[in-house]
Amino acid sequence: MPRIPKSNPRYRTKSELCGELAFVLNSNLHYGTKHAVLAEATWVWTEFEGKYEGCEQWSEAAREFHGQPKKLMHEHVMPKKLVIELLLKLPVRQQVRFSNS
Domain span at residue 21? Predict the structure, then answer.
């Protein structure tokens, strides 16, 4: 997935994304819902600057394949699973209650 352009309604800044994740983590949402949100957010974060162009995290070897994305593999220095587990273990500051209204 290429980066989400600012004109797309799905676009969020990194600051907005962090604030929304804090909201979710401090809510009384089901563990599975929190996990799903975190899984999506970690993908968005790793591709924020672009997956095929503009990625600041590319190695020098990856830069040699510029314009040939099928020769590249999107890997994470720290596995997403570990990042999600660490985020879910953060202490909750307050419970946010959702109503049905």
Answer: 14-88
